[in-house]
Structures are given as structure tokens and as C-alpha cells.
Amino acid sequence: MAGRAVKMRAMKRIVILISGRGSNMEAMLRVAASERWPAQIVAVISNKASAAGLDTARAAGIVARVVEHVAYPDREQFDRALSVMIDEFSPDLVVLAGFMRILTPAFVAHYQGRLLNIHPSLLPSFPGLDTHRRALEAGVKFHGATVHFVTPELDHGPIIEQAAVPVLEGDTEALLAARVLAQEHVIYPRAVRDFIEGRYTLTDGRVVRHSASID
Ligand code: GRF
């Protein structure tokens, strides 16, 4: 078209890793479609064949694969097999969504700056498992969820998004988990969309926001 410069942006490619239910993955699929992201979720990969989220992904027409950690003698070999599978899809971004594996430093280094995780607590409080029970036991008044870049230290990377929820009188682990999960489904898609739109970068180990997309 003469006289008209059309800037085409390449669709970013996202691979999502899950281990179970996959509600964060489902939220991401839903929001990506409804907001017409300039991105494609090219594959969902699970380390467990029984992960319910695999069926959800397939029903949405997404390629769903399994690489079972139990088939490998050690963490290093599993992580290598996993990254070979991930790299078949040439992702710009790898999203951990309830992926219940500790990752090797080599794996984390390979995806440095393009590997995100969501953790069900207000990090740096309560890294690791059983966050809702531990929050109740500690008597905190606020709990929540954190989206962060993955670094070799478990649940410790630079923070991208957080959502806080109140801890209410009479809360059970299940009630608190549900309140946090509802917020996870809001902040994780938003953090991923902002990543693909270049709205923040990692600078000196911290997340720096930009008012407009940088590419
Ligand atoms: C979420 O609470 C997430 O924060 C944690 O594992 C849970 C996964 O849930 N990492 P789902 O599989 O996304 O439903």
C-alpha cells in the first residue's frame, strides 16, 4: 500500500507448564482470547499425564504434551528432556502455572528473563508449599499471590505483580485458597499480557515498568 507504513508485530509464542488442575492456564486462555492478545499459546506441557488441565487445553484446541518426570533418573535429565520439548515450540515466554517441580539452575538459566511463575503467597513471605495453612497459622491479616520471574532460588525471583486479600475471621485453608485463586486468575493473565506487550523489563534484578510498550 503506497505511502502507508504498516508495522507488523510478530505474534509472541507462549508455552505453559502445568502439573494439575490448570485453572490459571484456563484463565490465561480465556483472557488471551477475549482480549485478542498479540500472542499465541502454542503448547501446554505437563509433567503428569493425569493433569486435568491437559484436557482443558485440548478442548480449547491447544497442543497438549506430557513429559513425565518419573521416567527420568534425575532432575537434570528430566529438565533437559523438558527443555527439548519446550524449545520445539520456540517460545518467547514460558509460563509456570501450577508446575510442581523444582527446576535445575541450568533450566532456569536457559529461560532467563522469559520464565514466569505464580506463587500463592505475598512473597517473600511463605515460599514453598502449604502457603494458605502457614498464613493462617502465622495469623497474618493479609495474604495473596505473586507473579515473578523465575530465578534459581525457589519462589524468590523479581516481583512483577501481587494481589493481596484479607484473611477473615473463621477462614479455613479452602476458603482462603479460593479467595487467593480468584486473584491469581486476574493478575497472572495481566502480567503475561504486559510481558508480551513489553510493558516491563528486568533491570539489575528488579522489574521496571514502562508507560508504553518498548518494541
Ligand atoms: C496455584 O495456586 C498456583 O499459585 C500454584 O499452584 C496452584 C495451581 O493451580 N503455583 P491451577 O493448577 O492453576 O489451578
Written overview of the protein:
The strands form 2 sheets. The chain has a 7-stranded mixed β-sheet with strand order 3-2-1-4-5-6-7, with helices on one face. Strands 8-9 form a two-stranded antiparallel sheet. Strand 2 (39-46), helix 2 and strand 3 (64-66) form a beta-alpha-beta unit. Helix 1 (23-34) crosses helix 6. It has helices spanning 23-34, 52-59, 75-87, 105-110, 131-138, 173-196, and strands at residues 12-18, 39-46, 64-66, 93-96, 115-119, 142-149, 159-166, 200-203, 206-209. The relative contact order is 0.15. The protein is an alpha/beta fold and 215 residues long. The structure holds 5-O-phosphono-beta-D-ribofuranosylamine (GRF). 5-O-phosphono-beta-D-ribofuranosylamine is lined by residues 18, 20-24, 97-98, 118-120, 145, 181, 184.
Topology:
Layout: E1 12-18, H1 23-34, E2 39-46, H2 52-59, E3 64-66, H3 75-87, E4 93-96, H4 105-110, E5 115-119, H5 131-138, E6 142-149, E7 159-166, H6 173-196, E8 200-203, E9 206-209
Parallel strand pairs: 1-2, 1-4, 2-3, 4-5
Antiparallel strand pairs: 5-6, 6-7, 8-9
Helix pairs in contact: 1-6
Any key phrases for this structure?
6 helices; 7-stranded mixed sheet; alpha/beta; binds 5-O-phosphono-beta-D-ribofuranosylamine; two-stranded antiparallel sheet; globular; 215 residues; 9 strands
